[in-house]
Amino acid sequence: MLLNKDQIQSIKENKVTFVKNFVTLNRPYDFNLISKLIEENDLQSMSKSNYGGLKNVFQIRGVVNLLKEFNVLFDFFSKTFNYKYDQRNNVDLFLSLISQVGVPHIDEEDVFIIGLNGNMVYKVFNDKIVDYHVFKGDLIFIPKGVKHKVIGVSSRISMSVGFFSKKL
Question: Which CATH homologous superfamily contains domain 5-163?
């Protein structure tokens, strides 16, 4: 996990921060792994779109303890940025089977998004509109209250580490 001093400061100041090649992910994060996690842990996926079928974006909540690396990343962000405990703090997976565009939205938590598979663009509507191209191992931090949307350039899987609590 690679964050330099400027990136850490940027996140502490609640600025959108993009880090290319933040983490090396050796495991293949594909739809076979997601299917296995769902089956072995009796997980529920929620549809985040109103399109139906393959056009949906799916969310799988609360996966922090399913794979060691999810827990390690959660712990790293929690300790590095001194987030207070909140039972809603967790790791979620987002996936889509086809290329598509999400709707602009504002999250109520700080999110650290890591690309696990595929190619996505995070369009952030802040002082100006900026596109961030996220691939496997890349990180984008989007503080709560910042409007953004996701454009899945291909099928995709991403991990979202969310903190509802304040930084100490």
Answer: Cupin (2.60.120.650)
- For 128-144, letters b (16+ CB in 10 Å) and e give eeeebebbbbbbbbbbe
Domain ranges of the chain: 5-163
Q: What digits encode the pLDDT tens for the residues 75-123?
A: 999 999 999 999 999 999 999 988 888 889 999 999 999 999 999 999 9
Cβ atoms within 10 Å of 117's Cβ, excluding its own? 20
Instruction: Please count the other Cβ atoms lying within 10 Å of the Cβ belonging to residue 36.
Output: 11
